[in-house]
Amino acid sequence: MDGFYRAFEDKHRGSREQIKNRQRVYLPLVSPLALVYPGAQTIDLGCGRGEWLELLGELGFDARGVDLNDGMLQECRDRGLHVATEDALTALKKLPEASQAVVSGFHFAEHIPFDILQQVVQEALRVLRPAGLLILETPNPENIVVGSANFYLDPTHNRPLPPLLLEFLPEYCGFHRVKLLRLQEPVNLTDTRRLTIHDVLSGVSPDYAVVAQKAADPQLILQVSQAFALNYGVTLGAVSGRYEEQADQRLHGLLNDVHLILQETDRRIAVLESKQQQYEASRPKARLKRVLKKVARRIDGAVKSFIKKHPAVHAKLAKFSRMIGLSRLINPILARISVVSDPSLKPWTDPEKVEWELTQEPAAVREAFRDLDAAIKKADKR
Question: What is the pTM of this model?
């Protein structure tokens, strides 16, 4: 089982360098204690491969760790770290009061029953020096994917610990102040990109930590106040709030687009209606024009037919056109009308003949003929 769990940690938790980089977030909190208590002892519960022990050692602490997995501890021993195969609560009870600057446990609390965890926190308060820190990091069940699925990847996990529960525990046990740190959220979650439902489900900080400080002289407490004042991580409320805000903006944009489309549709409908009205208004004119053309063709045909059948009219028009100076316009038209050759009919020499012929035509033609004859006679007198 030791070999399996080490392989599991290597695959799913991350490399040593990745874990050390993640744990550097705690350095601003513990570094002031390294100045206050140079070379002080610290203990890491469930130390695993020893990444945090290395960081504490680099700060000058006398860092020690305990774990029950000898496979994990072997790597610590290979690196010369001070570790022991021991139960966490047992190890704490062996320590003298006010002997540790830091008591830590990374992904440790979720492996033990809650009543044991309570005792661990109580013992940590006892063994910490004034202003000393308790650090407990654990998976964050506020992250829906972590709380519903990823937490149970580890077969040794006991139960998820809601942040408010773990935050309350050291307060209840008597620590001076407690800080909640949400950690390891995706880097791009804090930019202005469009969030997806997947961001809401998995974008909340997948880990969180409770950092509790033991009471001390105010000057010692101030040593880490700046780090305590910072805000860490992303909450479910923040992610879901941003998602809803962006959804509202998208909906507003969509409604605005629909409004613009409707406006454009109304405009085009108005144009079509206007054209339809113009078309409807032009239809009678078009029909009238067609009728007039048809009537004009019929009149033209009737006039030409009349002139063709009556040589006297043909000759009279030719004479009249010369008299009024329009012969160049009218004569070419008359020339295209071939009259019926009738030697017995002398143009306008036989009034009775003409009158008889006119009686065969419609009244309008007879009237026009008489007007034409009267105009020619009037011109002759001049």
Answer: 0.68
| Cβ-contact 165, 109 below 8 angstroms | no
| pLDDT tens per residue, range 48-89 | 999 999 999 999 999 999 999 998 899 999 999 999 999 999
Read off the pLDDT band of 379 (50, 70, 90): low
What pLDDT sits at residue 281?
66
Please check whether residue 182 is in contact with residue 232, taking contact to mean a CB–CB distance below 8 angstroms: yes
- The residue count of the chain comes to 382
> Measured between alpha carbons, how far is 161 from 163 in angstroms, rounded to an integer?
6
Q: Does position 161 have pLDDT exceeding 80, yes or no?
A: yes
d(CA 379, CA 382): 5
Pairwise CA distance, residues 224 & 176, whole Å: 13
Q: Are residues 228 and 316 in the same domain?
A: no
Token duo for residue 312: 């006297």
- The HSE-up count of residue 222 (CA atoms within 13 Å, CB side) is 3
Domain assignment present for residue 249? The answer is no
Assess whether 324 and 176 both reside in one domain.
no
Let me know whether 218 and 333 are in one domain: no
Taking the C-alpha atoms of residue 276 and residue 272, their distance in angstroms, rounded to an integer, is 6
Residue 5 Cα distances to 8, 153, 165, 237, 243, angstroms: 5, 11, 28, 34, 38
Q: Which among 303, 299, 314 has a CA at the least distance from the CA of 347? A: 314
Q: Domain for residue 291, yes or no?
A: no
Q: Would residue 99 count as lying in a domain? A: yes
Total domains in the chain come to: 2
